Amino acid sequence: MNTASGAFIAYEVADHIATITLNRPDKLNAMSVAMDRRLNELVYEINNDDEVRVVILTGAGDRAFCVGSDIGDLEGYGTSWQYRNRFDRNLDYAIGVWKIRKPVITAAHGYCIGGGLEMFCASDIRYATRDASFGAGEIRWGWHGGSGATQFLTRVVGPGHASEILMTGRRFAADRAERMGLANELFDTREEALAAARDTAVEIAAKSPIPIEAVKKLVRVAQSASIEVGLAYENDLFTYEMRSEDAAEGRAAFAEKRDPVFRGR
Predict the structure, then answer these.
(1) Rounded distance, CA 41 to CA 88, Å?
(2) Catalytic positions, please?
(3) ∠ CA(69), CA(71), CA(73), 5° rounding?
(4) Residues 80, 161: contact at Cβ < 8 Å?
(5) What is the pLDDT of residues 216-261, one digit of tens each?
(6) Residue 39 buriedness (CB in 10 A; 0-12 / 13-18 / 19+)
(7) Is pLDDT above 80 for 84?
(8) Widest CA span of the chain, in angstroms?
(9) d(CA 81, CA 86)
(10) Residue 150 and residue 138: Cα distance in Å, rounded?
């Protein structure tokens, strides 16, 4: 097991599963510039670490997954022009989550607001507690979310729900999030949601990482490309996968009636 922490971000890798914990509970896990920078460092590390096959993202404490950016720390991003160009500087936490190549499972509890909602939407599999509260309140103060609010949320829940959420700034409860498809499943407690995330992560980590990462990419292609392009891309990756060492191992394990051992080759 490898563990590391820094700038209120806890990080652990065990059994091919990386766990990122936003660890600033006294501030409802509001993201500072230092936390943003550390999260993006972890994105690079995760994407280049073959030992990591799946990622769990969660928040510490009892009250919140994340309430978005620490408004009092925004000056740390620099001038308006520098802030506009933060994507190119790898200094945007929600975009960072979206850039993770491996599957991301987020377990949210309590407040999931603003940039917290953007990170939630940027994840591949989303679990939440029944007491979770969601919202994009930026519009109430004179702006909209700038790290995927209009793009990630619309792709997850559709334009009608997204427009209502983003234009009103209303909070909404976990049961609505589940009905809209924003939350895959709801749980009574943070511990139960995190346990479910870990169970799913274990199941995914046991698979070959080659088709798992391909599926993530292809699901995104399905959201932005024509069906003809998607089918062609799917077939190309499928053909490549069938020639991999892992596929050969899968066929041998099937014939020998045993569990396959995948090495990501």
Answers:
(1) 14
(2) 118, 138
(3) 90
(4) no
(5) 999 999 999 999 999 998 999 999 999 999 999 889 999 999 898 8
(6) buried
(7) no
(8) 63
(9) 9
(10) 12
